[in-house]
Protein backbone atom coordinates (compact mmCIF):
# COMPACT_ATOMS: atom_id res chain seq x y z
CA UNK A 1 0.00 0.00 0.00
CA UNK A 2 2.80 2.41 0.87
CA UNK A 3 4.55 1.67 -2.44
CA UNK A 4 1.33 2.30 -4.37
CA UNK A 5 0.80 5.60 -2.58
CA UNK A 6 4.36 6.73 -3.33
CA UNK A 7 3.94 5.88 -7.01
CA UNK A 8 0.61 7.69 -7.19
CA UNK A 9 2.15 10.79 -5.63
CA UNK A 10 5.04 10.58 -8.07
CA UNK A 11 2.67 10.47 -11.04
CA UNK A 12 0.75 13.47 -9.65
CA UNK A 13 4.00 15.37 -9.16
CA UNK A 14 5.11 14.68 -12.74
CA UNK A 15 1.86 15.96 -14.28
CA UNK A 16 0.98 18.69 -11.78
CA UNK A 17 2.88 21.58 -13.34
CA UNK A 18 1.98 20.96 -17.02
CA UNK A 19 -1.68 20.24 -16.22
CA UNK A 20 -2.12 23.10 -13.77
CA UNK A 21 -0.21 25.46 -16.02
CA UNK A 22 -2.29 24.37 -18.99
CA UNK A 23 -5.54 24.95 -17.10
CA UNK A 24 -4.50 28.43 -15.98
CA UNK A 25 -3.34 29.32 -19.49
CA UNK A 26 -6.55 28.03 -21.09
CA UNK A 27 -8.74 30.03 -18.71
CA UNK A 28 -6.66 33.14 -19.40
CA UNK A 29 -6.93 32.62 -23.17
CA UNK A 30 -10.70 32.24 -23.02
CA UNK A 31 -11.11 35.25 -20.72
CA UNK A 32 -8.94 37.42 -22.96
CA UNK A 33 -11.32 36.96 -25.88
CA UNK A 34 -14.04 39.12 -24.31
CA UNK A 35 -12.03 41.23 -21.87
CA UNK A 36 -13.21 44.86 -21.69
CA UNK A 37 -10.92 47.66 -22.74
CA UNK A 38 -9.68 50.55 -20.62
CA UNK A 39 -12.05 53.31 -19.53
CA UNK A 40 -12.27 55.99 -22.20
CA UNK A 41 -14.69 58.81 -22.91
CA UNK A 42 -17.54 57.89 -25.20
CA UNK A 43 -17.28 59.85 -28.48
CA UNK A 44 -20.08 62.30 -29.08
CA UNK A 45 -23.09 60.81 -30.80
CA UNK A 46 -23.87 61.64 -34.39
CA UNK A 47 -27.36 61.85 -35.79
CA UNK A 48 -27.78 58.67 -37.84
CA UNK A 49 -29.80 58.89 -41.01
CA UNK A 50 -33.34 57.55 -40.84
CA UNK A 51 -35.59 56.90 -43.82
CA UNK A 52 -39.18 56.38 -42.73
CA UNK A 53 -39.87 54.59 -46.02
CA UNK A 54 -37.45 51.79 -45.10
CA UNK A 55 -37.86 49.09 -42.44
CA UNK A 56 -35.38 49.28 -39.56
CA UNK A 57 -32.97 46.47 -38.69
CA UNK A 58 -30.83 46.53 -35.54
CA UNK A 59 -27.89 44.50 -34.29
CA UNK A 60 -28.18 44.18 -30.51
CA UNK A 61 -24.98 44.33 -28.44
CA UNK A 62 -25.04 42.98 -24.88
CA UNK A 63 -23.93 45.00 -21.87
CA UNK A 64 -20.77 42.87 -21.78
CA UNK A 65 -20.21 42.87 -25.53
CA UNK A 66 -20.72 40.28 -28.26
CA UNK A 67 -18.93 37.98 -30.69
CA UNK A 68 -17.39 40.20 -33.34
CA UNK A 69 -18.43 38.23 -36.44
CA UNK A 70 -21.95 37.57 -35.14
CA UNK A 71 -22.46 41.32 -34.91
CA UNK A 72 -20.49 42.85 -37.78
CA UNK A 73 -21.15 40.35 -40.59
CA UNK A 74 -24.97 40.68 -40.41
CA UNK A 75 -24.58 44.44 -40.00
CA UNK A 76 -22.56 44.89 -43.20
CA UNK A 77 -24.79 42.52 -45.18
CA UNK A 78 -27.94 44.33 -44.12
CA UNK A 79 -26.38 47.67 -45.07
CA UNK A 80 -25.18 46.23 -48.40
CA UNK A 81 -28.75 45.25 -49.27
CA UNK A 82 -29.72 48.93 -49.33
CA UNK A 83 -33.21 48.12 -48.08
CA UNK A 84 -33.00 48.89 -44.36
CA UNK A 85 -32.14 51.53 -41.82
CA UNK A 86 -29.40 49.60 -39.99
CA UNK A 87 -28.08 50.44 -36.52
CA UNK A 88 -26.14 48.84 -33.70
CA UNK A 89 -28.02 49.24 -30.42
CA UNK A 90 -27.46 48.48 -26.73
CA UNK A 91 -29.07 49.35 -23.42
CA UNK A 92 -26.55 52.20 -23.09
CA UNK A 93 -24.38 54.02 -25.59
CA UNK A 94 -20.89 53.29 -24.27
CA UNK A 95 -17.83 51.33 -25.49
CA UNK A 96 -18.55 47.60 -25.54
CA UNK A 97 -16.01 44.83 -26.28
CA UNK A 98 -16.34 42.58 -29.29
CA UNK A 99 -14.27 39.39 -29.21
CA UNK A 100 -10.58 39.85 -29.81
CA UNK A 101 -10.52 43.30 -28.23
CA UNK A 102 -12.36 45.42 -30.79
CA UNK A 103 -14.35 48.02 -28.86
CA UNK A 104 -17.54 49.25 -30.49
CA UNK A 105 -19.57 52.31 -29.54
CA UNK A 106 -23.15 51.41 -30.51
CA UNK A 107 -25.00 53.85 -32.73
CA UNK A 108 -27.94 54.12 -30.37
CA UNK A 109 -29.23 53.15 -26.96
CA UNK A 110 -32.62 51.48 -26.80
CA UNK A 111 -34.10 54.83 -25.76
CA UNK A 112 -32.33 56.62 -28.62
CA UNK A 113 -33.74 54.12 -31.09
CA UNK A 114 -37.29 54.66 -29.86
CA UNK A 115 -36.84 58.42 -30.20
CA UNK A 116 -35.38 58.13 -33.71
CA UNK A 117 -38.16 55.87 -35.00
CA UNK A 118 -41.00 57.65 -33.23
CA UNK A 119 -41.52 54.69 -30.93
CA UNK A 120 -41.93 52.14 -33.73
CA UNK A 121 -40.44 48.70 -33.11
CA UNK A 122 -37.73 47.58 -35.56
CA UNK A 123 -38.73 45.17 -38.29
CA UNK A 124 -35.73 42.95 -37.50
CA UNK A 125 -33.45 42.48 -34.50
CA UNK A 126 -30.20 40.52 -34.85
CA UNK A 127 -28.97 38.94 -31.64
CA UNK A 128 -25.32 37.80 -31.65
CA UNK A 129 -23.66 35.54 -29.11
CA UNK A 130 -22.82 37.40 -25.90
CA UNK A 131 -20.38 36.28 -23.18
CA UNK A 132 -22.86 36.34 -20.28
CA UNK A 133 -25.72 34.39 -21.88
CA UNK A 134 -28.16 33.13 -19.26
CA UNK A 135 -26.84 35.48 -16.56
CA UNK A 136 -28.87 38.21 -14.80
CA UNK A 137 -26.66 40.81 -16.51
CA UNK A 138 -28.47 40.09 -19.79
CA UNK A 139 -31.71 41.37 -18.28
CA UNK A 140 -31.75 44.72 -20.14
CA UNK A 141 -31.41 42.90 -23.47
CA UNK A 142 -33.91 40.10 -22.85
CA UNK A 143 -36.50 42.49 -21.42
CA UNK A 144 -36.15 44.78 -24.45
CA UNK A 145 -36.39 41.84 -26.85
CA UNK A 146 -39.59 40.54 -25.29
CA UNK A 147 -41.12 43.99 -25.64
CA UNK A 148 -40.12 44.32 -29.31
CA UNK A 149 -41.43 40.86 -30.16
CA UNK A 150 -44.79 41.75 -28.63
CA UNK A 151 -44.91 44.59 -31.16
CA UNK A 152 -44.06 42.51 -34.20
CA UNK A 153 -40.24 42.50 -34.47
CA UNK A 154 -38.73 39.52 -36.29
CA UNK A 155 -35.70 37.93 -34.59
CA UNK A 156 -32.45 36.54 -35.98
CA UNK A 157 -30.37 34.69 -33.39
CA UNK A 158 -26.82 34.27 -34.68
CA UNK A 159 -24.74 31.40 -33.32
CA UNK A 160 -25.13 31.30 -29.54
CA UNK A 161 -27.41 34.30 -29.75
CA UNK A 162 -29.99 31.50 -29.76
CA UNK A 163 -29.12 31.03 -26.09
CA UNK A 164 -30.06 34.65 -25.41
CA UNK A 165 -33.42 34.12 -27.07
CA UNK A 166 -33.95 30.83 -25.23
CA UNK A 167 -33.12 32.46 -21.88
CA UNK A 168 -35.78 35.09 -22.65
CA UNK A 169 -38.36 32.37 -23.30
CA UNK A 170 -38.66 33.40 -26.94
CA UNK A 171 -37.82 29.96 -28.37
CA UNK A 172 -40.10 27.82 -26.18
CA UNK A 173 -41.90 25.27 -28.32
CA UNK A 174 -39.96 26.28 -31.43
CA UNK A 175 -37.27 24.54 -33.48
CA UNK A 176 -33.92 26.32 -33.21
CA UNK A 177 -30.22 25.73 -33.70
CA UNK A 178 -26.92 27.08 -32.35
CA UNK A 179 -23.15 26.55 -32.55
CA UNK A 180 -22.22 22.87 -32.64
CA UNK A 181 -20.02 23.22 -29.53
CA UNK A 182 -22.80 24.77 -27.43
CA UNK A 183 -26.04 23.25 -28.64
CA UNK A 184 -25.67 20.24 -26.32
CA UNK A 185 -25.53 22.42 -23.20
CA UNK A 186 -28.47 24.47 -24.48
CA UNK A 187 -30.49 21.27 -24.76
CA UNK A 188 -29.94 20.75 -21.03
CA UNK A 189 -30.43 24.39 -20.04
CA UNK A 190 -33.49 25.09 -22.20
CA UNK A 191 -35.41 21.81 -22.68
CA UNK A 192 -38.57 23.63 -23.85
CA UNK A 193 -36.80 24.41 -27.14
CA UNK A 194 -36.73 21.88 -29.99
CA UNK A 195 -32.99 22.04 -30.72
CA UNK A 196 -32.03 21.02 -34.27
CA UNK A 197 -28.55 19.74 -35.15
CA UNK A 198 -26.81 19.90 -38.52
CA UNK A 199 -28.56 22.93 -40.05
CA UNK A 200 -26.96 26.30 -40.88
CA UNK A 201 -30.21 28.05 -40.04
CA UNK A 202 -33.68 27.15 -38.84
CA UNK A 203 -36.71 29.30 -39.71
CA UNK A 204 -39.59 28.98 -37.24
CA UNK A 205 -41.66 31.84 -38.64
CA UNK A 206 -41.01 34.97 -36.61
CA UNK A 207 -37.63 33.70 -35.40
CA UNK A 208 -34.63 32.47 -37.39
CA UNK A 209 -31.64 30.94 -35.58
CA UNK A 210 -28.30 29.96 -37.05
CA UNK A 211 -25.45 27.58 -36.35
CA UNK A 212 -21.88 28.75 -35.69
CA UNK A 213 -20.57 32.25 -36.44
CA UNK A 214 -20.53 32.55 -40.25
CA UNK A 215 -23.76 30.60 -40.54
CA UNK A 216 -25.12 33.98 -39.47
CA UNK A 217 -24.41 35.16 -43.02
CA UNK A 218 -26.77 32.52 -44.39
CA UNK A 219 -29.39 33.42 -41.79
CA UNK A 220 -29.09 37.12 -42.60
CA UNK A 221 -29.43 36.52 -46.33
CA UNK A 222 -32.45 34.32 -45.67
CA UNK A 223 -34.06 37.15 -43.70
CA UNK A 224 -33.28 39.63 -46.49
CA UNK A 225 -34.83 37.23 -48.98
CA UNK A 226 -37.98 37.05 -46.87
CA UNK A 227 -38.25 40.81 -46.42
CA UNK A 228 -36.88 42.14 -49.73
CA UNK A 229 -36.67 39.26 -52.20
CA UNK A 230 -34.08 36.86 -53.57
CA UNK A 231 -32.52 39.36 -56.00
CA UNK A 232 -31.71 41.76 -53.18
CA UNK A 233 -30.29 38.91 -51.08
CA UNK A 234 -28.14 37.67 -53.97
CA UNK A 235 -26.76 41.16 -54.56
CA UNK A 236 -25.95 41.57 -50.86
CA UNK A 237 -24.12 38.22 -50.86
CA UNK A 238 -22.14 39.28 -53.90
CA UNK A 239 -21.26 42.61 -52.30
CA UNK A 240 -19.52 40.91 -49.35
CA UNK A 241 -17.96 38.07 -51.37
CA UNK A 242 -20.13 35.24 -49.98
CA UNK A 243 -20.46 32.70 -52.78
CA UNK A 244 -22.77 30.26 -51.00
CA UNK A 245 -26.11 32.04 -51.32
CA UNK A 246 -28.50 29.49 -52.77
CA UNK A 247 -25.99 26.70 -52.17
CA UNK A 248 -25.78 26.50 -48.41
CA UNK A 249 -22.65 24.63 -47.24
CA UNK A 250 -22.81 21.85 -44.62
CA UNK A 251 -22.25 22.47 -40.91
CA UNK A 252 -20.07 20.70 -38.37
CA UNK A 253 -21.91 17.86 -36.67
CA UNK A 254 -19.10 16.24 -34.68
CA UNK A 255 -18.55 15.86 -30.97
CA UNK A 256 -18.53 19.20 -29.15
CA UNK A 257 -14.87 19.04 -28.18
CA UNK A 258 -11.96 21.29 -29.13
CA UNK A 259 -9.49 19.92 -31.65
CA UNK A 260 -6.08 18.85 -30.29
CA UNK A 261 -4.45 21.94 -31.82
CA UNK A 262 -6.87 24.19 -29.94
CA UNK A 263 -6.15 22.40 -26.65
CA UNK A 264 -2.42 22.76 -27.20
CA UNK A 265 -2.70 26.45 -28.09
CA UNK A 266 -5.01 27.30 -25.21
CA UNK A 267 -3.08 25.30 -22.62
CA UNK A 268 0.55 25.84 -23.46
CA UNK A 269 0.91 29.16 -25.23
CA UNK A 270 2.24 30.63 -22.02
CA UNK A 271 3.72 33.73 -23.64
CA UNK A 272 1.30 34.43 -26.53
CA UNK A 273 2.48 36.80 -29.27
CA UNK A 274 0.80 40.19 -29.39
CA UNK A 275 -0.65 40.98 -32.79
CA UNK A 276 -1.50 44.60 -33.49
CA UNK A 277 -4.56 45.15 -35.67
CA UNK A 278 -4.58 48.54 -37.35
CA UNK A 279 -7.88 50.39 -37.39
CA UNK A 280 -8.07 52.71 -40.40
CA UNK A 281 -10.89 55.08 -41.39
CA UNK A 282 -13.35 53.51 -43.84
CA UNK A 283 -12.31 49.90 -43.20
CA UNK A 284 -14.98 47.29 -43.93
CA UNK A 285 -16.81 45.79 -40.97
CA UNK A 286 -16.41 42.22 -42.25
CA UNK A 287 -12.71 42.87 -42.93
CA UNK A 288 -12.26 43.88 -39.29
CA UNK A 289 -14.29 40.96 -37.97
CA UNK A 290 -12.38 38.44 -40.07
CA UNK A 291 -9.06 39.37 -38.45
CA UNK A 292 -10.22 39.76 -34.86
CA UNK A 293 -12.38 36.61 -34.85
CA UNK A 294 -9.83 34.42 -36.63
CA UNK A 295 -7.20 35.19 -34.01
CA UNK A 296 -9.63 35.04 -31.09
CA UNK A 297 -10.87 31.60 -32.18
CA UNK A 298 -7.33 30.30 -32.72
CA UNK A 299 -6.28 30.89 -29.07
CA UNK A 300 -2.72 31.11 -30.41
CA UNK A 301 -2.07 34.82 -29.84
CA UNK A 302 -3.63 38.04 -28.55
CA UNK A 303 -4.84 40.90 -30.72
CA UNK A 304 -4.49 44.57 -29.81
CA UNK A 305 -6.56 47.18 -31.65
CA UNK A 306 -4.44 50.22 -32.52
CA UNK A 307 -4.93 53.36 -34.55
CA UNK A 308 -2.47 55.93 -35.81
CA UNK A 309 -3.13 58.39 -32.98
CA UNK A 310 -5.09 56.26 -30.50
CA UNK A 311 -8.31 58.02 -31.44
CA UNK A 312 -11.61 56.50 -32.61
CA UNK A 313 -12.19 55.57 -36.24
CA UNK A 314 -15.34 55.28 -38.33
CA UNK A 315 -15.77 52.18 -40.46
CA UNK A 316 -17.01 51.95 -44.04
CA UNK A 317 -20.65 52.16 -43.05
CA UNK A 318 -20.27 54.51 -40.11
CA UNK A 319 -19.67 52.38 -37.03
CA UNK A 320 -17.45 53.87 -34.33
CA UNK A 321 -14.57 51.79 -32.98
CA UNK A 322 -12.11 52.68 -30.23
CA UNK A 323 -8.53 51.39 -30.33
CA UNK A 324 -6.84 50.28 -27.14
CA UNK A 325 -3.51 51.94 -27.98
CA UNK A 326 -1.82 54.23 -30.46
CA UNK A 327 0.55 52.60 -32.91
CA UNK A 328 3.73 54.36 -31.79
CA UNK A 329 3.14 53.59 -28.11
CA UNK A 330 2.22 49.96 -28.72
CA UNK A 331 4.94 49.20 -31.28
CA UNK A 332 7.62 47.93 -28.84
CA UNK A 333 5.20 45.27 -27.54
CA UNK A 334 3.92 44.08 -30.91
CA UNK A 335 5.15 40.90 -32.56
CA UNK A 336 3.20 41.57 -35.78
CA UNK A 337 1.09 44.34 -37.28
CA UNK A 338 -1.93 43.31 -39.36
CA UNK A 339 -3.77 45.80 -41.55
CA UNK A 340 -7.33 44.77 -42.48
CA UNK A 341 -9.02 46.05 -45.62
CA UNK A 342 -8.28 45.64 -49.30
CA UNK A 343 -6.38 48.53 -50.79
CA UNK A 344 -5.34 50.04 -47.44
CA UNK A 345 -1.72 51.17 -47.27
CA UNK A 346 -0.04 52.79 -44.30
CA UNK A 347 2.42 55.63 -44.39
CA UNK A 348 5.36 55.57 -42.02
CA UNK A 349 5.32 52.87 -39.34
CA UNK A 350 7.59 52.48 -36.31
CA UNK A 351 10.96 50.84 -36.94
CA UNK A 352 10.93 47.07 -36.58
CA UNK A 353 7.34 46.61 -37.71
CA UNK A 354 6.50 45.36 -41.17
CA UNK A 355 2.77 45.81 -41.92
CA UNK A 356 0.97 42.70 -43.17
CA UNK A 357 -1.86 43.61 -45.52
CA UNK A 358 -4.27 40.79 -44.86
CA UNK A 359 -6.89 41.24 -47.55
CA UNK A 360 -6.29 40.84 -51.24
CA UNK A 361 -9.70 42.05 -52.34
CA UNK A 362 -9.90 38.96 -54.56
CA UNK A 363 -11.48 36.56 -52.06
CA UNK A 364 -13.83 36.41 -49.09
CA UNK A 365 -12.20 38.28 -46.20
CA UNK A 366 -12.17 35.30 -43.83
CA UNK A 367 -10.35 33.12 -46.36
CA UNK A 368 -7.51 35.65 -46.45
CA UNK A 369 -7.40 35.86 -42.65
CA UNK A 370 -7.28 32.08 -42.22
CA UNK A 371 -4.53 31.77 -44.85
CA UNK A 372 -2.45 34.33 -42.96
CA UNK A 373 -3.01 32.40 -39.72
CA UNK A 374 -1.85 29.15 -41.35
CA UNK A 375 1.32 30.77 -42.71
CA UNK A 376 2.33 32.33 -39.40
CA UNK A 377 0.95 29.83 -36.88
CA UNK A 378 0.20 26.42 -38.37
CA UNK A 379 -2.24 24.62 -40.64
CA UNK A 380 -3.86 22.52 -37.89
CA UNK A 381 -4.75 25.65 -35.93
CA UNK A 382 -6.04 27.38 -39.06
CA UNK A 383 -8.29 24.44 -39.94
CA UNK A 384 -9.67 24.31 -36.39
CA UNK A 385 -10.33 28.04 -36.51
CA UNK A 386 -12.22 27.72 -39.80
CA UNK A 387 -14.25 24.87 -38.33
CA UNK A 388 -15.28 26.85 -35.25
CA UNK A 389 -16.33 29.76 -37.45
CA UNK A 390 -18.26 27.47 -39.85
CA UNK A 391 -16.08 28.76 -42.69
CA UNK A 392 -16.23 26.36 -45.67
CA UNK A 393 -12.72 25.26 -46.61
CA UNK A 394 -13.46 23.58 -49.94
CA UNK A 395 -10.78 24.84 -52.30
CA UNK A 396 -9.08 26.86 -49.56
CA UNK A 397 -5.38 26.05 -49.74
CA UNK A 398 -3.51 26.50 -46.47
CA UNK A 399 0.29 26.65 -46.42
CA UNK A 400 2.44 26.73 -43.30
CA UNK A 401 3.80 24.50 -40.52
CA UNK A 402 1.66 21.43 -40.04
CA UNK A 403 1.30 21.62 -36.25
CA UNK A 404 1.95 23.92 -33.23
CA UNK A 405 5.19 22.11 -32.40
CA UNK A 406 6.57 24.71 -30.01
CA UNK A 407 3.50 24.64 -27.79
CA UNK A 408 3.43 20.84 -27.92
CA UNK A 409 7.05 20.64 -26.83
CA UNK A 410 6.42 22.60 -23.62
CA UNK A 411 4.25 20.06 -21.72
CA UNK A 412 6.43 17.20 -22.99
CA UNK A 413 9.55 18.96 -21.67
CA UNK A 414 7.86 19.64 -18.33
CA UNK A 415 6.81 15.99 -18.02
CA UNK A 416 10.32 14.81 -18.81
CA UNK A 417 11.75 17.22 -16.24
CA UNK A 418 9.23 15.96 -13.71
CA UNK A 419 10.18 12.34 -14.41
CA UNK A 420 13.86 13.24 -14.04
CA UNK A 421 13.16 15.02 -10.77
CA UNK A 422 11.22 12.05 -9.38
CA UNK A 423 14.02 9.65 -10.39
CA UNK A 424 16.67 11.86 -8.80
CA UNK A 425 14.67 12.25 -5.58
CA UNK A 426 14.02 8.52 -5.42
CA UNK A 427 17.72 7.74 -5.83
CA UNK A 428 18.64 10.38 -3.28
CA UNK A 429 16.18 8.91 -0.79
CA UNK A 430 17.57 5.43 -1.41
CA UNK A 431 21.12 6.70 -0.88
CA UNK A 432 20.15 8.43 2.37
CA UNK A 433 18.37 5.30 3.65
CA UNK A 434 21.46 3.22 2.83
CA UNK A 435 23.75 5.60 4.69
CA UNK A 436 21.42 5.67 7.70
CA UNK A 437 21.30 1.87 7.91
CA UNK A 438 25.07 1.72 7.55
UniProtKB/TrEMBL annotation:
Ranges in a coiled coil: none
Signal peptide residue numbers: 1-28
InterPro entries (UniProt xref): Class_I_gatase-like, DJ-1/PfpI, INH-QAR
Regions that span the bilayer: 409-428
Pfam families the UniProt entry points to: DJ-1_PfpI
Keywords, in A-Z order: Membrane, Signal, Transmembrane, Transmembrane helix
Domain DJ-1/PfpI: 58-224
Domain of life where this protein originates: Bacteria
Gene3D superfamilies: 3.40.50.880
SUPFAM superfamilies listed in its UniProt record: Class I glutamine amidotransferase-like
Protein name, per record: DJ-1/PfpI family protein
UniProt organism field: Streptosporangium vulgare
Amino acid sequence: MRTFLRRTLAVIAVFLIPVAGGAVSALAALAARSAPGPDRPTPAATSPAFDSAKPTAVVVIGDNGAVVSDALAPYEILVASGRFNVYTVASQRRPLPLTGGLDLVPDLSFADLAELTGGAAPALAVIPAIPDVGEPSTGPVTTWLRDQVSRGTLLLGVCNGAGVLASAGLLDGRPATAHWMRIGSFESDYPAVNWVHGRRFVDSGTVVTTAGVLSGIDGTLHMIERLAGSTVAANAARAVGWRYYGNTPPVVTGVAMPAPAAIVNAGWTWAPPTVGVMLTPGVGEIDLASVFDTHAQSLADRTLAVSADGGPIRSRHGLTFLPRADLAGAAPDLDRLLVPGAGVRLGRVPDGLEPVYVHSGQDFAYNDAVRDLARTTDVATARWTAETMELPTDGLRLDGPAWPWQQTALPILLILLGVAAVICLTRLRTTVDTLVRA
